[in-house]
Amino acid sequence: EIHIKEPIEKEVNPHLLPGELLLCEASTVYKYVQEDGSNRGTYGKLVCTNFKISFLDDDSASDDNEPQFKNKIVGENDITLQCVDQIYGVYDEKKKLLTGQLRKYPEKLIIYCKDLRVFNFCLRYTKEEEVKRIVSGIVHHSQTPKLLKRLFLFSYASAAPNNTDGRNQTVMFETLEDWRDELERTKGNVKYKAVTTNEGYRVSEKLPLYFVVPICISEESILKYEGRGIPIWCWSCHNGAALLKMSTFPKEQDDSTSQMQKAFLDGIYKTISKPPYELLKMDDLSSSLPSLQDIQTAYTRFKQLFLIDNSTDFWATDVKWFSLLESTNWLEIIRRVLKKAMEVAECLEIQHTNVLLIEESATDLCCVISSLVQVMMDSYSRTKSGFQSLIQKEWVIGGHSFLDRCNHLHKSEKEEAPVFLLLLNCVWQLVQQYPPAFEFTETYLTVLSDSLYVPIFSTFFFNSQHQRDTNKSGESLKTQSGPFRFLTVWDWSVQFEPKALAFLNNPLYAEKPKPDRSQRKTARFKHQRQLSLPLTQAKPSTKRGFFREETDHLIKNILGKRIGKFINSSDEPPNSLREFYDSWHSKPVDYHGLLLPRIDGPEIKVWAQRYLRWIPEAQLHGGGTIATAAKILDLMEEVQSLQVKMDEEHSQSVSGDAHSVPMLRNSARLSSLFPFALLQRQSVKPALPTSTWKDLEDEDDLVKRDDEFVDLSGDML
User: Which CDD domains match (predicted)?
Assistant: First the structure.
């Protein structure tokens, strides 16, 4: 059965941004509703521009039923070219990956996106010539290698009127003053100095123009090996201990060069490590954390669990959910990274020891760990502007290779690794464990992860500050209007209206109180912490899991089999870390002090909002965190309206801030997928959807198992 809407009376044209060009289009394309295997959907036009792939139906022409959380740049049926992950064609019911030149054109097109959306288009009713143009156009523009200057970023920057400042309160770290202010804020200016040695990039193109080093490091030392082997300052703790990072020398060197480099490093270490006054701990992240290849492999497996074609596929994998999730190793990597950040925090906080993070380039895992340590130890980094400044400092200016790691240009898959996504996943664990400690919400983190693939902002589309600066000139384009003025992603008003922006701010954020030591001693926060690191090593197991032993009986009831136990990894934490962890978790939480994540097995969760938001089967009607948030926002709106009435009583002036929170009426009808998807159809789980369910048919606790499934899914999601 095919559901056909009335023919479109008027021509539906795509909404084009400044600099956006229509490249190819096809009419009478049928878009399937991602559902239960039926062929329901709608007809429309499929277009490809130099910015996005877009499906236009008659709904696109009207502004009715617009979602409250509408993105002004990327619509519901838009896919930016950088957001396309893989494209499959269906030939005689068989899926085939589409790359390069095509000899035969498919009857159906499936587009998998990096934000986990799945689009199914039927081309059977489209003219053959249009099919050839649109399929080859989409594959060419989204999958083949391209030059940096061919990114839409440059077309947009040269054509768009730049009337937004976009900085807000975010520190961009592009000037020497920004670095000096940060040193002063963290009281690090006693032992560290901001240097101008790299002005004109005469030291290295990988280093930022300005950075901070220990006061005793000379300019000659920085120049000697292009900045390699130099401890670069990240952050200073309240007790004076500092977090530093350093890039290592290439491994393939002849003996004489290696000896010289070793002597150079020994000299550097002696200048910054002066026991017992200045202690230094070095941590080589390449040996203590998973490799980038391991991270990429784990994430590739993990995301496959959420790229669901239809309802049948969802229920077929549902019965194996825990074992599939565990086998990806993604949650285990998150746990290991959080544990490493806690080790560093313990050195800084308890042992008063400087920590030097070492990595080949110091721009991947160093960025993850240094950012996490600051989020855990510095409450400023848990505000919105503070977190954005942190990303600027450690990632954008710090030289993380966004272009290569996100593979925006499709140059090399070997360089691809979701390092920044790994950080956001780790920060999300902290946000969902300690919501009042963060000024921003999980929706903010989800939107930030989506912005990785929107090439109108320069933030995530360069490998270094040098690359950004050298590509700012507009000489290669026809318009000789001087340098490009790129937008920064931190100007959220470019993507969202004020009403939608309210979803990014946490209404329950605990504002930092004025320091009052007498009150601080007597304050008692109601906060339960029942889970802590196990005191003894669990039984050895061939399978590394992420569940604690106590949860095994529950899993056994649900799945009819036992999932691997949560065990400590082979590198069992030292006693000092375990004592530090247990001691902290035995005290009330200070939401503006140190935060330590709970990392026991079931405490590391799947970031449900990001990964499950497009799957109707996974939604909770009237449930999830959004239902709670909706009630709070309703209450805030009521308080604000009462405040306006009170102001009117006392004076004739009316407050203009009455609509700073979105109106969420009928919040009981929202689903847990909100605000990214509006209320979806009710998905009913079939009693025995697959043969795997039939295997469990003989068990006499089926009813009980279903009840427990509901409880656990609510907890897990």
Answer: PH-GRAM_MTMR12, PTP-MTMR12
